[in-house]
Amino acid sequence: MKGNAIIGQFGGPTAVINSSLCGLIQEGLKSKKVEKVLGMRFGIQGFMQDEIFDLGKEDFQVIEGLRQTPSSALGSCRYTLKDEDFPLIIKQIKRYNIRYFFLIGGNGSMDTIRRVEKYCQKNNYKLNGIGIPKTVDNDLCGTDHAPGFASAARYVCLSVQQAGRLARDMQRVDKYVILQTVGRNTGWLAASAALVKKTESDAPHLIYIPERPLSKERFISEVKECINKNRWVSIVCGEGILWEDGTPVASLQTQNNLSNIEFGAMGGGSAALTLHKIINQETKYRGEFQITESLSMCAIDRASKIDLEEAYACGVKAIQLAEEGLSGVMVSLHRISSSPYQVELKTVSLNEVALHTRPMDDKYINNQGNFVTNEYIKYIQPLVGELPRYSELNFIKSK
């Protein structure tokens, strides 16, 4: 089947989403079945507003440069299709002779592809819809991990490692530091900080994730124990952590237009700020909290090499799958081994991914619910790559 291909980016960006875009464009331009490679500006909303562009007319250097370009080059959106949108969508699809429909995104994006494909099928129009995974949250079902996660994890690791040094060296002033990560209702990203801990005294000391609700009593007890042992404490928390009664630690919460909980600035509160206040009230110690918000989603300077390569490969694979006639699937990463690290690109049905969320596996969380197991370290290490090692003074007493 010959026709045009269209590509869109959906939801929050990652450091490597444009690497997937590059793979799609370059492989699409080589394909004998793809006549033109088109791009939708600002996702499916832009598509409906006729923001459609010919990516084949871009300079080669511009397209190649996408592999090292942060954020979402096409522009993105967060939008749930309404029933009344579909007549316009199929009109646009027919107008531009689109036969291959690609979205780079998360579980909401996969639902969009699924619904568009089904509508076209119902109206006797042949359209191949394929998803390319993307999320820093790493909560996609059917794949070992999602492109974008490894780079965000590396960002978190470096932030915790360096902020931990600062907190340790400023312990006479501040006794604690709390770093909050994104990740919504899963703890994959917050948990990645554990990779930087090489000795018992290293940051982080405590990691709190949404999969393991906590009590205020247990929290303050663990904090005091760490301060008594190390004279300071480094804490990492996911933005969506909960108290044992199910209420969010962030205190306040609102919903966006996709009915997803808004955390951080738009949520009106933050888990890190709440924990900071509790420690200060209970101990009277000074300390600080750090909320990076979306910085981990676009920090190309901290991108994981493996992440960049896998994101590109997923884009290439999506075109190849379309050429083979596959539809209704998402490219997935299947891990063959962790040491040496090896993955294989496979597919998973959109039905298994769309609107589903994958929490952290129980085997990756320690019994106390405040750190990870060695299994998780083995899982995350090859994705993040080598981290810096810093000098330590021996503090030899002068005579």
From TrEMBL:
Molecular function via GO: 6-phosphofructokinase activity; diphosphate-fructose-6-phosphate 1-phosphotransferase activity; metal ion binding
EC number: 2.7.1.90
Residues at which substrate binds: 135-137, 182-184, 239
Site (Important for catalytic activity): 134
Location of the active site: 137
Names of the cofactor(s): Mg(2+)
Biological process, per Gene Ontology: fructose 6-phosphate metabolic process
Residues involved in Mg(2+) binding: 107
InterPro entries on file: ATP_PFK (IPR022953), PFKA (IPR050929), Phosphofructokinase_dom (IPR000023), PKF_sf (IPR035966), PPi-PFK (IPR011404)
Pathway it works in: Carbohydrate degradation; glycolysis; D-glyceraldehyde 3-phosphate and glycerone phosphate from D-glucose: step 3/4
Known regulation of activity: Non-allosteric.
Domain Phosphofructokinase: 6-320
Subunit and partners: Homodimer.
The protein's role, per its UniProt record: Catalyzes the phosphorylation of D-fructose 6-phosphate, the first committing step of glycolysis. Uses inorganic phosphate (PPi) as phosphoryl donor instead of ATP like common ATP-dependent phosphofructokinases (ATP-PFKs), which renders the reaction reversible, and can thus function both in glycolysis and gluconeogenesis. Consistently, PPi-PFK can replace the enzymes of both the forward (ATP-PFK) and reverse (fructose-bisphosphatase (FBPase)) reactions.
Family the UniProt entry places it in: Belongs to the phosphofructokinase type A (PFKA) family. PPi-dependent PFK group II subfamily. Clade 'B2' sub-subfamily.
Name under which the protein is recorded: Pyrophosphate--fructose 6-phosphate 1-phosphotransferase
Biological source species: Candidatus Infernicultor aquiphilus
Lineage of producing organism: Bacteria, Pseudomonadati, Atribacterota, Candidatus Phoenicimicrobiia, Candidatus Pheonicimicrobiales
